[in-house]
Inverse folding.
C-alpha cells in the first residue's frame, strides 16, 4: 500500500477511496499502479479520460503482452475499461493469406498458443468487438476517432502521435499494461503532452524539398534528428491540402508513424495543416528553438544509409509486405491501380513477387465488396490480411529472408529491405532489383 503522506500527486476523494479499497482489492491495485505511474511522471494530479482507448499489444507473447494471470484477475473482479477500446493489428495466424513455410507456421502457433484465451479476456475487459484491430483506428471505417481536446491514454506510438498531432486530442505515449489499467480506472496523469506547456514546440523543421517528400523518409529523418521533443514543420503546405482530405491524412499517418518509430516524439505541428498550428502558428515556438533543414539530398543520404540485412544480399525477393502501418481504402486502390499499370506496361498478368497488403478488417471488407477490383488484384497475385506483418518475424525464423517493403518502420524492426512506392511497384512486377546481379 502506498504511504499517502509521501505522495506528491494530489488525489480527489473518489480517487483516494479507490486507492483505499472502496471498490475492492483489484481496483485498489489498479489505482495504486496508476498513482505510482503519476508519481514517476511528477504529475500534479490525475485527470479523467474522456475518450476510447487504443492499446498496443493484441497478441499473447510472454514477456511482451500483459500477463494472462493479471488479465484473469481483472476479469474475475468484473472490471472493464471506461470506454470500449481498439487494439493494434491481429496476431499473425492468418496463414491462408500469409503463405508461410510450415516450420514458421508451427513456431508461430507455439508462440501464440494462448491467443484464443487472450482474445476472450480482451473482449471481456472492453475490446469493442472482434474486428477492432488496426494501427489506423481513426479511419472512418474503424471509427475510433477522438475529438479535439479529448484526454486519452493511448499506447501504440504511431497512433498516439496521430491523435495528438492531427486530431488535437491529448495523450502521452503510454506503455503496455499501464495503458489498460489507466483506461480501466478512467484516469491518467496530468503530465507531458496533456499540458499546454508540454505541447509547445522546440524544433523548427524547414522542409525544402522540390516535391512532396516520401512520408516514410521524411518522418524517419525528423525522428533521427529530433529524438525527443516537439517539432514544428514548415513547408508541407506547399504540397498538401490544408483541408485534411484523404491524401493529407494518409500522408500524416505514414509520416507520423515513422517519426515515432525513430524517436520518442509523440506530437508534431505542421504549419497551416494541423489544428494547433492553425490556431497558434509559430507562437508554439519558444525564443530558443533549434532548426533543422531537410532537402532532397537529406533524404537521398538517408536511403543510402540503410543496411541490407538479407542472408544473401543478391537473392531474388520472395515476399513483399505493404501496409505497415495499415493501409486506408484510398491507398489500397492506389496500389491496385499502380500494380495493374505496372503489369500492363510489362505485358504481364501476374506479379513476380508474392505480395501481401495489410489493412483493417473493415477496410478489407469494403474493398472486397468491389468484386471486379478485388478479383483483378487477386488474379495479379496480391493477398490481403488484417494482421501486422512485423509479427511474422517474431519467431526469428524469417530473419534474413529476402523480403521487400515500402515501410521504413518494417525495415527498422526486421531484416526487410525498403523501397519507395514507385520503385517497389517495378520490383514486384519484374522480380528484379535494379543494379543487383541476383542469385537463385
Amino acid at each position: 500500500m502506498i504511504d499517502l503522506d509521501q505522495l506528491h500527486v494530489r488525489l480527489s476523494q473518489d480517487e483516494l477511496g479507490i486507492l483505499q479499497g472502496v471498490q475492492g482489492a483489484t481496483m485498489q491495485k489498479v489505482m495504486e499502479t496508476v498513482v505510482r505511474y503519476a508519481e514517476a511522471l511528477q504529475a500534479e494530479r490525475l485527470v479523467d479520460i474522456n475518450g476510447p482507448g487504443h492499446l498496443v499489444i493484441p497478441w499473447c507473447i510472454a514477456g511482451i503482452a500483459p500477463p494472462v494471470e493479471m488479465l484473469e484477475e481483472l476479469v474475475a473482479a468484473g472490471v472493464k475499461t471506461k470506454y470500449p477500446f481498439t487494439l493494434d493489428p491481429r496476431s499473425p495466424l492468418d496463414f491462408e493469406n500469409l503463405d508461410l513455410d510450415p516450420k514458421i507456421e508451427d513456431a508461430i502457433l507455439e508462440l501464440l498458443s494462448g491467443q484464443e484465451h487472450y482474445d476472450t479476456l480482451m473482449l471481456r475487459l472492453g475490446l469493442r468487438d472482434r474486428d477492432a484491430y488496426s494501427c489506423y483506428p481513426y479511419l472512418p471505417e474503424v471509427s475510433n476517432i477522438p475529438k479535439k481536446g479529448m484526454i486519452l491514454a493511448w499506447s501504440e506510438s504511431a497512433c498516439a502521435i496521430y491523435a495528438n498531432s492531427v486530431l488535437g486530442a491529448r495523450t502521452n505515449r503510454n506503455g503496455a499494461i499501464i495503458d489498460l489499467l489507466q483506461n480501466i480506472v478512467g484516469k491518467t496523469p496530468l503530465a507531458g503532452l496533456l499540458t499546454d506547456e508540454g505541447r509547445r514546440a522546440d524544433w523548427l523543421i524547414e522542409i525544402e524539398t522540390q516535391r512532396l517528400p516520401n512520408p516514410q523518409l521524411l518522418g524517419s529523418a525528423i525522428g533521427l534528428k529530433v529524438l525527443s521533443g516537439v517539432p514544428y514543420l514548415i513547408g508541407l503546405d506547399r504540397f498538401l491540402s490544408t483541408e485534411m482530405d484523404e491524401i493529407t491524412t494518409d500522408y500524416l499517418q505514414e509520416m507520423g508513424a515513422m517519426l515515432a518509430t525513430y524517436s520518442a516524439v509523440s506530437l508534431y505541428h505542421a504549419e497551416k495543416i494541423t489544428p494547433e498550428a492553425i490556431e497558434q502558428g509559430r507562437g508554439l515556438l519558444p525564443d530558443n528553438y533549434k532548426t533543422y533543414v531537410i532537402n532532397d539530398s537529406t533524404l537521398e543520404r538517408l536511403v543510402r544509409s540503410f543496411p541490407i540485412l538479407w542472408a544473401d544480399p543478391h537473392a531474388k525477393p520472395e515476399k513483399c509486405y505493404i501496409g505497415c502501418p495499415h493501409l486506408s481504402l484510398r491507398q489500397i486502390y492506389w496500389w491496385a491501380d499502380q500494380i495493374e499499370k505496372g503489369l500492363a506496361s510489362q505485358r504481364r498478368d501476374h506479379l513476380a513477387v508474392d505480395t501481401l497488403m495489410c489493412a483493417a478488417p473493415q477496410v478489407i471488407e469494403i474493398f472486397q465488396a468491389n468484386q471486379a477490383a478485388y478479383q483483378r488484384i487477386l488474379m495479379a497475385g496480391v493477398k490481403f490480411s488484417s494482421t501486422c506483418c512485423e509479427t511474422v518475424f517474431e519467431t526469428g525464423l524469417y530473419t534474413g529472408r529476402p523480403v521487400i517493403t515500402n515501410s521504413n518502420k518494417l525495415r527498422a524492426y526486421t531484416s526487410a529491405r525498403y523501397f519507395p512506392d514507385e520503385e517497389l511497384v517495378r520490383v514486384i512486377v519484374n522480380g528484379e532489383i535494379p543494379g543487383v546481379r541476383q542469385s537463385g
